[in-house]
Amino acid sequence: MTTKLFGEPVRRREDARLITGRGRYLDDIGSDALAAAFVRSPHAHARVVDVDVDAALDVEGLVAVYTYEDLPGPLAEPLPVLIPHPQLHAPRTGYPLANGEVNHVGEPVVMVVATDRYVAEDAAERIVVTYEELPVVVGVDAAREAVHAVHADVPDNVAARHHQETGDADAALAASPHTLSFTQYIERSACMPMEGKGVHARWDAGDRSLRVHTSTQASTSVRAAIAAKLQLSLDQVEVVAPDVGGGFGVKIVHPWPEELLVPMAAIALGREVKWAEDRREHFISSAHERQQRQEITVGYDDDGRVTALDVHVWHDNGAYTPYGIIVPIVTATQLVGPYVIPVYRVIVESVYTNTVIVTPYRGAGRPQGCFAMERTMDRIADALGLDRAVVRERNLIRPEQFPYDHRLTFQDGRPVIYDSGDYPGLLDKLRALVGWESAEELRADAEARGKLLGVGMALYVEGTGPGPYEGGHVQVLGSGKVLVSTGLTSQGQGHETVFAQIVASELGVPIEDVEVTTGDTRRFGYAVGTFASRAAVMSGNAVALAARGVREKALRIAADVLEADPGDLEIDEGVVSVRGTPGAAIPLRTVAVLSNPLRYAFDEAAKQATQFARSASDDKPPVAPGDAPGLEHRDYYSPIRSTFASGAHAAVVEIDPATWEIDVVKYAVVHDCGNVVNPMIVEGQVHGGVAQGVGGALYERMAYDADGQLQNASFMDFLMPYASEVPDVVIDHQETPSPLNPLGIKGAGEAGVIPGTAAIASAIEDATGRRIAAMPISPTQLYDLVRDGSSETTAAWRRRTGVDA
Amino acid sequence: MKPAPFRYADPRSLAEALEVLATEEGAKVLAGGQSLLPLLSMRLAAPATLVDINRVPGLDRIEATGDGVRVGALVRHVRLLEDVVAARVQPLLARATANVAHPAIRNRGTTVGSIAHADPSGEMTSVLALTGGSVEVATPAGVATVGWEDLFVGPLETSLHGPAVVTAASFPALPDRSGTAFAEIARRKGDYAVCGAGVVVTLDADRRVERVRAAYVSVGLVPAVHDLTDAVAGQPVEKADWAAAGALARTLVDPDGDLHASADYRRLLVGVLTERTLARAAAEAAERTGA
Ligand SMILES: Cc1cc2nc3c(=O)[nH]c(=O)nc-3n(C[C@H](O)[C@H](O)[C@H](O)COP(=O)(O)OP(=O)(O)OC[C@H]3O[C@@H](n4cnc5c(N)ncnc54)[C@H](O)[C@@H]3O)c2cc1C
Fold first, then answer.
1. Cα B66–B69–B73 angle (5° rounding)?
2. What is the residue with the minimal CA distance to atom 1 of ligand 1?
3. What is the pTM of this model?
4. Which domain holds residue B229?
5. Do B8 and B57 have their domain in common?
6. How far B270 CA lies from chain A's nearest CA (Å)?
7. Which of A122, A783, A784 sits opposite B5 (nearest CB)?
8. What whole-number distance in Å separates Cα of residue A499 and Cα of residue A497?
9. How do residues A729-754 score in pLDDT, each as one tens digit?
10. Domain tally for chain A?
11. Dihedral through CA A568, CA A573, CA A574, CA A578, nearest 10?
């Protein structure tokens, strides 16, 4: 077969368009639209006493001003709690525009609509909002102490207490030969897509329909939310995700206030209205992630095998909880990684702070879980004087233990049962790839050059492809073109390429004939969204099933025409032929024409399907009962539970002991996402993930001051790594297919970012001998740590240097 | 992130530019725009008029003579970086400019603009100080030369008031028997420095250290030149105790802390960078001194 493309490094078909400026992003739409701008709270916590818009009214070009009082019907209610959960006992969400109180800097208070964005900002600048400031809560520790409350009716600041346990942790710890306890912190970062959010809405008063373009990861659900909040019928609302310049999680949250307010204004004004988020808005009014305080107690035996693990996390969820407790659950359940943990207890207290909301950012709680578990492994190794890789190896789930049940409940409400994997295989490959056994030689070599060298590793297991479902539609046209659509959205991952590969392989057509559409509710109305490394697993399998349906129908029709048994037919390069019978063939495009019996011919191809062109049986209807015209099929994939991908990363760092600059000189990745549809795309995902992992470990930090002001809300001071800061990444693949889905694939979108913080912390600790218990870390912080005589040193370092503690 | 309304003027001569600056209240010069436009977009600045000097003829020359290098107001960073004659006369120019931002910004931003902007985190303000340079300032009253000591008043603040265009900056040549070096540490490649150091070492005819001066980037509110001679005076260049000079430097500076570096960390870097750059500058000085 020449059309077998599954598994090939097919070049990304979307790239030529996107990198030559022919993409169509949100702000490319509606050049004549009115522009919205927002007055946002400058205070982290305050009562809104008065909004005086008078001064704005004489700005030429101003069209409308909206405050909370102007919001009709359900728009005046709080925004939805998207993912309710019984343990989220005190959910709170904001309003589209502040209703009397603001809970973080950046919360929208007034929307201004004007002839363009410049004028809208001129007008917004003149609106005077009077605030009465309230005490501010910043950071998990302040939230936990609860001297002040973010929401007056939640005095302890605790939104949720997520709790899972698999046995009697206290008893198991008491019975453990050794225990150790420690506390560590991880900081806030954020998604930072190149393109911020944005919404464009057009109301057609004639047929009373609304078309909304939004830079989203979940167009079908945005559509439902808009219909509900604006009191429209679903069929009146179309939502399209155009080209989206990155998401990384922040665009799965919906409806954002702007996604409701912009359509509201478009309807009210009868004009196109657009809002394109600017970078400062993205910093202060989108979402962040990752701040946690982790208190860990682990029990283990003389060999370093874990006997019990007790974890108490305080998770900063920001001002509101629209996305429920997904991030806490993911941390809690993915923390256990590739290890056998006989007894596990985890409590995640999700606490309110007067900061931007916390919702999933690529990894979505996993980097924190990995940081907790992997640093625990490092501590056990240090305490016992064992190699860190050996301790990990002794705790790994063995290949023969699959399916492995952790006795936990995952973010999809389903059990955490690992479907397949080979973790010792990952570890072996990683050791070889990074040269783990020769670390001491590398260290000596670096020392001769005046550098401190350290190595670190981290392993993870990632639940990917959660349900409930995704669908796919495949249609072959009379031209031979194959149209594929799925409802979930794309943010640059390469879905067009991967879905085309799958369909071309399943159907036996040239990939050039396949056209893929994603995230357009006009084409596919049922979908969940793009998150949790689920697009390939969910929509990949759905379009494969749809393609199989088309194939079956094509073979049935072709068999009729060719007077052959469908079982003897094959499709290759878009031609159906009888195996072993040269000449007995029919192009798939002709089959498509014949699949739709016609009365009217409009072109040469159509003639073949008209009523006098074909001899047909007189006693059967042209379309058989139960059949449908057209060569198309729609199908859905709904998994029993998530499939679990895995991987192992190692970092080699060199530190300049004069300046404390930290250089990641080597970064090794072993990656297992089951069957790989396109290795080039998987490697690209890993590279991007590693870049974000390095960013999270060494550069990025949302620096809030005690007043809740974000000190670095621009790319001047929020440091994402440039290409010059990202190390070369060496990758090795392992393929352990998933038994759960037809294609045997697992997700790969988030993997690269998960272990970065843990592996790099371990490497820095190895290099300096100082315990690294807070990440990210910068040179100035490392300098403080090493010169502070009271900093904890590692036993490994004391042994190596002969220094007594 | 859209600028407030402003008027835009693009004069075709210096006289015209000065006239607009003199007649329009709150008018500001626009050169490469690499510092000014972000300020406008964030509405941290809202000048009523921008006077774009990019079409004023005669401001785009680099003139290198034995005495020094004169850099016109429209010379982009990239041209100074690549000018080999200028680099021979005053090697600090190219060495420092290589640390200014990224290529895209160096292609537009001007060296004179970065001096007029008086950012203590900019490299070229310190280089002007270290070389003992000056600027030429055109006002309706004529052209005056302003030495670097009289130019920098505070962060983002110069002594220039009223209608004025800086038409050139002049950097004296590297003296005989001298060498220079420049180094900086930034969080990411191309970022403003967490700390930068430029040094000049001058030897006597016997290859003994005669004079050592240093200037730092992102240390202090205005550029300053520190004399480190005392730490190493008279020492043979091969054996000079550059670490002592670094230690001295640490006692002379008064850095501030910010998000990216504590004051202590900056002080540490002042010492390290001083020692490292002095060793390189001394090697160059020795080479230029001969046996
Ligand atoms: C991402 C980024 C990174 C950067 N990194 C660095 C860095 O590492 N180091 C560094 O030094 N700089 C850096 N810069 C700034 C850059 O070097 C600018 O080019 C420079 O600071 C200003 O030059 P300009 O020609 O762009 O001036 P403009 O932005 O046009 O003007 C800046 C100010 O100077 C005034 N001005 C300019 N020219 C004159 C003149 N001839 N007469 C009177 N007044 C004048 C203007 O009125 C304005 O107030 C960076 C900029 C960016 C955007």
1. 155
2. B101
3. 0.96
4. 178-286
5. yes
6. 10
7. A122
8. 6
9. 999 999 999 999 999 999 999 999 99
10. 3
11. -20
